[in-house]
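User: Sequence in, structure out. Go.
Assistant: Echoing your sequence, followed by the structure tokens.
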Amino acid sequence: MAIEEELAGDLIAPGGRLVLKHSGTLLGAVWTGFVGKDLFLYGPSGAGKTSFIKYMVTSARANPSEDRELTRRKRNRYFSAFRISGNSDQTVDIRRLRDRPGNSSGEIHGVEFTRERPHHAVVLLDATLPFSSKNGDSISKYLTDFWGELRRGNKELSKKVYRVWIIVNKIDQIKSSKTERLMTKLNKLLGDLTIGVILTGRVKLRPCSLVEGPEWEAVSDRLLNDILADMVYP
């Protein structure tokens, strides 16, 4: 099904907190193409990038029992306008939502980020991965490699990139005490990594879960609303 068919009309997320509109006219599409912002996703395989975009576009929740949908190439969603929760007069025009294949190497995604320079970026991490590991994939290795490329990137990043969201997904699969410890470790790691990097002060860290359930739905809805509200600036 084409994305235009998927987005026909308004889609109201749980509780009416978010309304999605698709630019159904040529004029609307052209306008969004000029003033809209890019929101690109990065992160290791299985972190939930495709599920996050699906939730953002259709409000559908992830189902852990279903087979994971694999993204084998970069995919864009074009010309969407999101109305911010609680404010029917304020919308965010998003020119491109970009999904991409997962990669255990943050270096590859760091190179792509430096080249693409999106207005806003979401880096999704898998909370079930070990924070550090000598021989395998880990959260700290991905982020360290990712930021290493930003250190070598050019100063054009500071002219276009407004925000980088580090989202720790799948917190429903770990204990709350482990989530707290993980967030503390990540805060320290990000503080160390961003020293001397031109994006210092533009990074936000948040936990997330995309599965059904009142507790998790409140977390993800609030997060998405904050991301959209953060995209409203002169």
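User: And one key feature?
Assistant: The first helix runs from residue 3 to 6.
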